[in-house]
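4.2 Preliminary Data

To establish feasibility before requesting continued support, the project team ran the inverse folding procedure on a target of 208 residues. The structure was first converted into the token representation described in Section 3, and no sequence information of any kind was made available to the design step. The complete token record follows.
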């Protein structure tokens, strides 16, 4: 099957689910204009570098999948109703300050396999009460950013050199965490402070 190089024109404005993954699309600006009913947009495995204002006006969008593209930054003008944002396997180096506050319903954020550094994460950028799952695995981070106390799942494979967890933050920060993945880091069991048990009270699974 021949792969698409652009979003097909003249798609019905009433469309609710649009799946364009595994194509050769590189530009999407203006492609979704007027699709106010669109709730699920899948653009993974394409060649998109910049989205421009492509998502402006998509007031019903709750899920955006842009894994495996060529993005250098987090898309702008994300819809306020967005709940799931998947941006793994891109070239993102930084997260804009306040980007989560523009998406007050966002629950799942996956930024694994990018080029994020500690410098590229503004203070409290992930400290949003709605956030349930955060994946920052396989980046260039050396410390765990401040997160909401409501966070339940945190994935941080191949990032940390030392265990910089409960000792650097408020003990209550990770009190709702149920799953913690820290495997493939340079962490030994002896590096985990004794007080970890107090700030990880609800965790059912820890992989170091």
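Position-by-position output of the design step:
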């Amino acid at each position: 099957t021949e792969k698409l190089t652009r979003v097909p024109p003249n798609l019905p404005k009433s469309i609710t689910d649009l799946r364009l993954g595994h194509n050769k699309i590189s530009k999407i600006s203006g492609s979704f204009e007027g699709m106010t009913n669109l709730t699920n947009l899948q653009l993974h495995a394409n060649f998109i570098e910049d989205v421009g204002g492509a998502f402006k006006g998509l007031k019903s969008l709750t899920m955006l999948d842009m894994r495996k593209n060529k993005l250098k930054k987090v898309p702008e003008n994300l819809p306020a109703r967005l709940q799931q944002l998947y941006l793994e396997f891109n070239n993102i180096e930084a997260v804009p300050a306040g980007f989560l506050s523009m998406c007050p319903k966002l629950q799942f954020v996956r930024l694994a396999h990018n080029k994020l550094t500690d410098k590229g994460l503004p203070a409290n950028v992930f400290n949003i009460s709605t956030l349930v799952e955060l994946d920052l695995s396989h980046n260039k981070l050396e410390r765990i950013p401040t997160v909401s106390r409501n966070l339940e799942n945190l994935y941080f494979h191949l990032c940390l050199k030392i265990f910089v967890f409960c000792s650097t933050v408020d003990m209550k920060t990770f009190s709702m965490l149920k799953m913690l993945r820290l495997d493939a880091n340079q962490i030994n069991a002896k590096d985990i402070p004794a007080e970890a048990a107090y700030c990880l009270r609800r965790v059912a699974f820890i992989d170091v």
